[in-house]
Amino acid sequence: MRLAARNTDSAEALRRSGLRVSGIGGEVRADAIDVAAVEAYGKGDQFDLILLATKAQDALEVAPHVMGVLAPEGVILPIQNGGVARVLADRLGEDKILGGFSNLGATMVEPGVYEQKNAGHLVIGELAGGVSERVERVAHALGRAIEVKVSSNMTGAIWSKLLINCSVTTIGAICSQTMRQYMETKAGKKVFRRTYEEALSVALATGTRPERLAVDPIPPGWASNVAVEERYESWVEAMIAFYGDVKPSMLQDFERGRRTEIDFINGYVMTLGHASGVPVDMNTKITGLVRQIERGDLQPTPDRMNDLAAQDAD
After folding, report:
1. What stretches of the chain adopt beta strand conformation (E)?
2. Per-residue model confidence as pLDDT tens digits over 200-229
3. Are residues 140 and 160 in the same domain?
């Protein structure tokens, strides 16, 4: 196994520090790692599996380059949020791309040092659906290091993760809180529900059947007039139990001054919603708000949540 870093400086820093992962899964460290800058790989290098563990926009940029070091029967496994795998498959060929994402939360303490926050796993599968021999082979290889689940409904699984990203990750980032914290407020509950329901409506409108992850992706009483508020609250509590204490990765992007994945999360829902005629007002407002924070025009604070809730009442 070899690692590719974004540049020579990053590769050198990782060679000096090694890798250390701690948290809910225990502690593991590797002091000697084989790492080089991604541009250092070229002729003479061939890999059966390339795992893209980058931000969404970086995956789209680097994938064409790493195609040059992919073995003839090899596959690329992107594990980003949103529709990255689908975009890559359309550009590079579905025979070269598997679908995948990470369902665990982790925080980078510093380069080479990571803390796992929940007992998640990788989900992988064929974008066209079903289970193939190559998916099983990749799952077996990666399963020596992390729990891997194979989905026969990979598009549905990706959308289920996207529902979480839109409502848990982005909302937590703009108000600089965890889900457990913002769901203690009336405004937080309102914005979460509207954001989630809009995204779910878009998924269903595109013919997607969301896959169960930590909880059922479809809340109790969806698309009915049955009074199931108590069951809905239990559904929310189950989601908080799994995701409630994870620091949003987008908030970490804000803190480090990095570009976020908003175009692949709420922005993706916004685009598909407009194309399919599904109302996505809250996701549109959230997308605009994130872009303002990215530019430095606003700061992520709890006031952002109150602003969104007030706008929704207008």
Report:
1. 3-5, 19-23, 28-30, 35-37, 47-52, 70-78, 99-102, 106-110, 113-116, 122-125, 148-150
2. 999 999 999 999 888 899 998 776 655 577
3. no
